[in-house]
Design brief:
Shape of chain B: elongated
Number of strands of chain A: 0
Order of helices and strands of chain A: HHHHH
Number of domains of chain B: 2
Radius of gyration of chain B: 24 Å
Order of helices and strands of chain B: HHHHHHHHHHHHHHHH
Oligomer: heterodimer
Largest interface: A-B, 62 and 89 residues
Number of helices of chain B: 16
Structural class of chain B: mainly alpha
Helix content of chain B: over 70%
Shape of chain A: elongated
Number of domains of chain A: 1
Radius of gyration of chain A: 24 Å
Distance between the termini of chain B: 62 Å
């Protein structure tokens, strides 16, 4: 009961603030939150799933940093090669059949493809000439 | 004073503001890919500069609304004079330079608004400022932006690590997120270009309209668009390395999957806000994302002291830029002598801040690490106490866990698959 009352009070205060013209457009704010959250979850989820499926399909991505930015994470070329060998070894031990691996890889490529689509949609939203604003 | 000189002066200042805006905001897009090594520092800023240059030509819609809106917004129908704009720009530039010196990411739009508001206060009195508009358009969004982006970044960071987590110590492939980082960061840079260069185009157009050199209601001219695009691109390429340092490693240590999640949240939030009509500051969104992603990754630490300093900077932006703008407007009211005095003092302050910054220069070579180069030569080992006890037991059971071995395996943290000593942290 108390929570209901306080919620009503809070709502009244917000409504009063909105009426006075000092409030935030909460509907617009909430839709920003929902849209942004959905888009971010879709993009990051797909990419992460793509990485996971790639590993399942026997292709472990090993991307060495372009520049060693931190002394703690410095890798020598020999260490990078070692990491790649380890990735290959893990890929060989994969218990899946060839068909399952291919399916996993195709899923991974589909995920990355959808991610690329999301990036293109982002460009579409950024360029006014494309969406006709 | 001849009005032409004043216009030239205002345009020069506006372009310099555009330049500071560029290097101030390089970090929003490029701090995380630089921090994780997804892009070389110089390549990253060059990419951001090109995207800003392209973005500036893509749209002039924002510039039109700014050059139309500021006159109404600033003073309820009172025409803003070039002297006011001049004073406002000085306030914005001085604050941008100061926050850059301190390595604080802060909103260039807020600095510009603050400076113009300060100048309008002197010119037209307190009545010129609509407190309600100020609160609902600038102050509340500034509070909301970092929390929104932070929440989204927190959730998607958890998601990214959850989906790639392995308990069998096999490679998790998280270094593969480095490729993704390039694309999400590029989106942020492009979105920035379509927005921020236009603020300056709007200010220059506003000035040209105010002195009658351009018809009211027309968009920015091509030469204005071109010089503004070049100024912001040059600024972006110069790179605000101090701010990149703060966002890239000052708030928290950024890993590839985390950087990808943070930049995806930034891009999503900015695009959503600009299309649903709830304008949020790119800088505040980007900072919120980095903090949120840091909270979302296991074993990462947030430096709350730095977070506090940045928050304080945001609170100070409007009043501080406003105070400088007001002071400059006060002096500018003296006439030609005042404007010249303003210009001289303004250039003096900028030069002083620049020279002061030379005392401890931060550039592409040392923004992320002062010791990375020496790290190639000397193998750096982490203190034994950092490894949790159960891992040490596991380690001694498995292989001879000498200190060098530990350091080397921890050192392989950039490539998650060499992560044999699990400390419960996500790499």
């Amino acid at each position: 009961m108390n929570t209901v009352t306080s919620a009503v009070t809070a709502g009244a205060v917000l409504a009063a603030a909105a009426a006075a013209g000092v409030g935030v457009d909460w509907v617009a704010f909430l839709s920003v939150l929902v849209w942004a959250m959905t888009a971010a979850i879709v993009v990051v989820g797909l990419y992460a799933l793509g990485v996971r499926m790639l590993i399942r399909g026997g292709r472990v991505p090993v991307v060495a940093p372009a520049e060693f930015t931190d002394a703690i994470t410095v890798l020598s070329p020999a260490e990078a090669r070692k990491a790649e060998r380890k990735a290959e070894k893990a890929a060989r031990k994969n218990p899946l059949t060839a068909g399952q691996k291919r399916l996993a890889r195709l899923t991974a490529y589909a995920c990355f493809g959808l991610c690329a689509g999301a990036v293109l949609f982002g460009i579409y939203l950024i360029v006014p000439a494309l969406h006709g604003a | 004073m001849d009005i032409t000189y004043l216009v030239v002066l205002v345009i020069a200042l506006a372009l310099f503001f555009d330049f500071t805006n560029g290097f101030h905001d390089t970090a929003n897009a490029m701090a995380t890919p630089i921090a994780t090594g997804a892009l070389k520092p110089k390549v990253a800023v060059a990419l951001a500069a090109v995207l800003n240059l392209v973005g500036a030509f893509l749209s002039t819609e924002v510039a039109k609304t700014i050059s139309g809106g500021l006159i109404k917004e600033g003073s309820g129908g009172v025409l803003i004079s070039p002297e006011m704009i001049f004073a406002g720009l000085i306030g914005a530039i001085v604050w941008n330079m100061l926050t850059w010196l301190l390595g604080l990411p802060s909103s260039s739009s807020h600095a510009l608004f603050g400076g113009l508001i300060g100048a309008a206060l002197v010119g037209f009195g307190v009545g010129a400022i609509d407190g309600g508009v100020l609160l609902s358009k600038i102050i509340l969004p500034a509070l909301i932006a970092p929390f929104t982006a932070g929440l989204i970044a927190f959730v998607v960071t958890k998601l990214a690590y959850g989906l790639t987590r392995r308990y069998d110590k096999k490679p998790d492939g998280r270094s593969g997120f480095r490729y993704g980082q390039i694309f999400t960061s590029s989106l942020v840079a492009l979105a920035h270009g379509t927005n921020d260069a236009q603020k300056t185009m709007g200010v220059i157009t506003l000035t040209l309209v105010a002195v009658g050199m351009q018809d009211a209601g027309t968009g920015p001219q091509l030469w204005v668009v071109t010089v503004c695009a070049l100024a912001i691109a040059l600024g972006t390429y110069i790179g605000g390395w101090r701010i990149i340092k703060t966002l890239g490693r000052g708030l928290t240590e950024v890993k590839p999957a985390q950087g990808f999640a943070a930049e995806a949240s930034t891009a999503a939030t900015i695009l959503a806000s600009s299309h649903v009509g709830f304008a949020l500051s790119t800088t505040q969104v980007a900072s919120g994302s980095v903090i949120g992603s840091g909270l979302g990754r296991r074993g990462s630490e947030i430096r709350w002291g730095t977070v506090g300093r940045i928050g304080l900077g945001w609170l100070m932006t409007l009043p501080a830029a406003g105070a400088v703008g007001a002071l400059a407007a006060l002096v500018a009211q003296l006439g030609t002598v005042g404007v010249i005095a303003d210009a001289v003092v303004g250039v003096g302050v900028i030069l002083f801040i620049y020279l002061w910054s030379r005392r401890d220069e931060v550039g592409a070579h040392n923004a992320m690490s002062d010791v990375a180069d020496s790290g190639h030569a000397v193998r750096i080992t982490e203190p034994e106490k950092k490894v949790k006890r159960r891992d040490r037991v596991r380690q001694t059971a498995g292989s001879p866990g000498t200190e060098t071995e530990t350091g080397r395996q921890r050192g392989g943290g950039a490539l998650p698959d060499s992560d044999a000593t699990t400390t419960g942290d996500d790499k």
